[in-house]
């Protein structure tokens, strides 16, 4: 019991952050009577949780411009992700999801993946517009529906989410080592054979569309063909599943 | 390559994944459930892209392209299914479909005792765990001990 208590104490800060986050989620998940006090409490707990986690779980970055952009994009992604999950109006949830997607695309840019950032924006812009139309068509006919105001099992889910997040974050802490110095070096280095095959020399090559195209259509040509086939099958399946009016028109 | 960026992106990816999971489990609107699963996919993509930048090779980015493709398939089929389900019950509530699940089976103690007696009768070791038959028992498939009872009745 004593080692467990010591372990808990040594990881108290991230655990408190995760617990606060779980409490904030539980408070913010939709339910019939959301008082203003409850929303304010959820916002305070959520922001406190984000603050604690950003101090204890994030590693300080040397480059100030990179750090600033990272905190901006990460904050946008996480906050709007939380609002997507907790907003009781599906229209606003879809809007917040679009903003979360933009934040994630910013993080893609920081990680030298400009093509993926652009592709994600394009693909999800289409997906969000279609989802939007669906929501307007199906969900908004009679105003807000009762099932959007009741979350199912908010308490159990918040506890489970806190446990999962604590596990993930503490395993990251364990990778980093006891002194909490940056030690991503502990992550597996790329195997020798793979290191020889890299198409890239540096960051410029990594972020160029040309080398991504060579990777996709060189190393993964077969998988690209399979993915194309999967898309075709999915399109046919969607047409087959979608209900028709009389006379066969969609 | 900066290791701090990788570590921090992994943290953000974990948070996004957990948020998506919470939405997937708690929301009762079919469309929002799908949006939450897309949020989980964002977390996974972020991990892949961060590792790709850290290792300075393009495999992670290529995998993310495949995630995008499969997410598009999923969205297409999911929306078609949503439309079909909506046509049937005129609601997006997920809970009205919970009758698709199996009814929780009741424990049939008489059947268990009969099965144990059947096995003891044949000189077999009793097999554990004794599973309670789930769902409705098919009418025309007799259980082994019923066959034995029928045979002994015939004799």
What is the total tally of β strands of chain A?
0
Span of the ends, CA to CA of chain B = 84 Å
For the secondary structure, the number of strands of chain B is 0
Largest β sheet strand count, sense and barrel closure of chain B: none
Overall average residue pLDDT of chain B: 82
Tell me the Rg of chain A in angstroms: 23 Å
**Which structural class best describes the helix and strand composition of chain A?**
mainly alpha
Secondary structure: helix percent of chain A: over 70%
Helix tally of chain B equals: 5
Q: Which H/E pattern describes the elements of chain B?
A: HHHHH
Please indicate the percent range of residues of chain A in DSSP E strands (runs of 2 or more): under 5%
- Which class of secondary structure composition applies to the elements of chain B? mainly alpha
Mean pLDDT of chain A: 84
Largest sheet of chain A: none
Helix count, DSSP H or I runs of 4 or more residues of chain A:
11
Uncertain segments of chain A: none
Question: What percent of residues of chain B are in strands?
Answer: under 5%
Identify the quaternary structure here: heterodimer
* H/E element sequence of chain A: HHHHHHHHHHH
Radius of gyration of chain B: 26 Å
């Amino acid at each position: 019991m004593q080692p467990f208590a010591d372990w808990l104490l040594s990881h108290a800060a991230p655990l408190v952050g995760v617990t606060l986050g779980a409490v904030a989620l539980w408070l913010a998940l939709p339910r019939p009577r959301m008082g203003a006090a409850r929303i304010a409490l959820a916002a305070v707990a959520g922001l406190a949780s984000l603050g604690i986690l950003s101090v204890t779980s994030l590693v300080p970055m040397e480059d100030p411009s990179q750090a600033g952009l990272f905190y901006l994009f990460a904050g946008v992604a996480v906050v709007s992700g939380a609002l997507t999950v907790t907003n009781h109006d599906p229209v606003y949830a879809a809007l917040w999801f679009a903003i979360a997607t933009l934040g994630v695309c910013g993080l893609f840019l920081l990680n030298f993946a400009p093509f993926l950032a652009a592709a994600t924006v394009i693909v999800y812009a289409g997906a969000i517009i279609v989802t939007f139309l669906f929501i307007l068509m199906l969900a908004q006919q009679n105003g807000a529906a009762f099932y959007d105001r009741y979350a199912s099992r908010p308490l159990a889910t918040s506890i489970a989410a806190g446990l999962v997040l604590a596990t993930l974050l503490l395993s990251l802490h364990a990778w980093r080592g006891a002194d909490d110095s940056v030690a991503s070096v502990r992550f597996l280095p790329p195997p020798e054979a793979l290191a020889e095959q890299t198409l890239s020399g540096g960051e410029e090559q990594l972020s160029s569309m040309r080398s991504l195209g060579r990777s996709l259509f060189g190393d993964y040509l077969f998988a690209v063909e399979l993915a194309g086939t999967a898309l075709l099958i999915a399109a046919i399946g969607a047409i087959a599943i979608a209900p028709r009016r009389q006379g066969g028109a969609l | 390559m900066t290791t701090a960026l990788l570590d921090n992106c992994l943290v953000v990816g974990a948070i996004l994944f957990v948020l998506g999971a919470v939405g997937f489990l708690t929301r009762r609107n079919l469309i929002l459930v799908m949006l939450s699963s897309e949020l989980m996919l964002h977390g996974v993509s972020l991990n892949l892209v961060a590792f790709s930048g850290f290792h300075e090779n393009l495999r992670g980015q290529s995998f993310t392209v495949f995630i995008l493709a499969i997410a598009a398939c999923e969205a297409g089929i999911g929306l078609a299914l949503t439309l079909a389900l909506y046509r049937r019950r005129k609601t997006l509530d997920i809970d009205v479909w919970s009758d698709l699940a199996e009814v929780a089976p009741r424990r049939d103690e008489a059947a268990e005792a009969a099965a144990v007696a059947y096995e003891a009768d044949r000189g077999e070791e009793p097999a554990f765990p004794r599973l309670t038959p789930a769902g409705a028992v098919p009418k025309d498939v007799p259980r082994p001990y019923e066959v034995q009872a029928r045979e002994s009745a015939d004799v």
